[in-house]
């Protein structure tokens, strides 16, 4: 994780670069070899954290929570991911536990000393009667970077989940790096959601066209899984001009949004979360 962007500061407007603009800056790459790093979190129903361990760029901190959740904040201890890095984080919310995970700053994918893409694998398991709120900061795909993220979620039939993903495609006045995001969610052993998105150089033609991003450089989604939606399903609807709320084939709802910048994207997803939590 990188501490280059602080969550309290509005994200710079990541618009497309005009043809006449100067060549985008390239962040100097730290002189280090590719790394492999892992982190693990386990939350128990009594509010304890039997497992809280991380290495490399992962510094996990238990932080104060004003609600009923045990809260963990992911703090970046060094610049990552860079090209060739292999990062993995697992979180287990045991039966009856409630866990809230956020981050101290955005994650910035940077170019490295190799053309091999970095990978970031996230595995989340939520047990019976348990609840997970996974609300990290944005993922910024800097020019020249290449990153593959894979998120795998396993839910008990009675589990609850709030999961937010936000991608900022390029910093101010620079094009996007190459970014592939995969999200697979299974509930009670059955598929709930399985999708892959690709952006930047090497992505299928049209990724930035009017049918996908329409020139926007901030995109994200919010997934809410709630067993109560079985009897009270969420109705499909538009949320403003560039976001849509859609029920899934299960007690879940997915909000997909694009925006001109990170601040507008966050406002849209926060409004959607407030709507779904009160639904």
UniProtKB/TrEMBL annotation:
Keywords: Chaperone, Cytoplasm, Nickel insertion. Residues 1-31 are annotated as: Disordered. GO terms for molecular function: nickel cation binding. UreD, UreF and UreG form a complex that acts as a GTP-hydrolysis-dependent molecular chaperone, activating the urease apoprotein by helping to assemble the nickel containing metallocenter of UreC. The UreE protein probably delivers the nickel. Required for maturation of urease via the functional incorporation of the urease nickel metallocenter. It comes from the Bacteria. The keyword Transcription regulation does not apply. This is Urease accessory protein UreD. Belongs to the UreD family. Its main location: cytoplasm. Pfam families: UreD. It is found in: Cytoplasm. It comes from Streptomyces laurentii. GO terms for cellular component: cytoplasm.
